[in-house]
Write a structure and sequence with these properties.
4-stranded mixed beta sheet, Aldehyde Oxidoreductase, domain 3, alpha+beta
């Protein structure tokens, strides 16, 4: 199980090529990559802040919960921080399990957690100034289905 919080970009192909490599107990691999989006146009960048020790521990605890809940053979979570431009990778989750349902559900659970509970603070910068990204009810609703 791997958790990385980093400012530098990651090579998705390389991460997935090495993920769960050589495991014969894996029947399914699921991956998701989040991209910085500019929904309304005009976004120059998003800046993501975090407390290094706290963020790593919090995400690792959620990976442990996912591993205990689903029969995961492996898991990787990478989340970036710092300034990011639209179109850049912001995060990835990959899960590997003997069966596809566990791999899909664990990946969704981790993505829902990262969206609503991981200790990151996001600020968007554009031509009209800057604003903090606020939590959305639909993100909380998505996480609540796992309780």
């Amino acid at each position: 199980m791997t958790v990385r919080v980093q400012s530098e970009d990651f090579d998705l192909s390389a991460e997935l090529a090495g993920f769960a490599k050589g495991r014969t107990d894996v029947g399914a691999q699921v991956s998701f990559t989040g991209i910085v989006r500019d929904v309304e146009g005009g976004l120059d960048r998003m800046e993501i802040e975090h407390y290094p020790g706290m963020t790593q521990k919090a995400i690792a605890a959620m990976v442990d919960k996912a591993t205990a809940r689903w029969d995961l053979a492996d898991c990787i979570v990478i989340h970036r921080h710092g300034p990011l431009k639209p179109g850049e990778q912001i995060m990835m989750v990959a899960t590997a399990a003997p069966h596809r349902v566990a791999a899909f559900e664990a990946a969704e659970y981790l993505m829902d957690y990262l969206k609503s509970r991981a200790p990151f603070w996001k600020k968007e910068f554009g031509a009209d100034g800057s604003s903090w990204v606020e939590a959305k009810d639909e993100d909380e609703d998505a996480l609540s289905r796992w309780e």
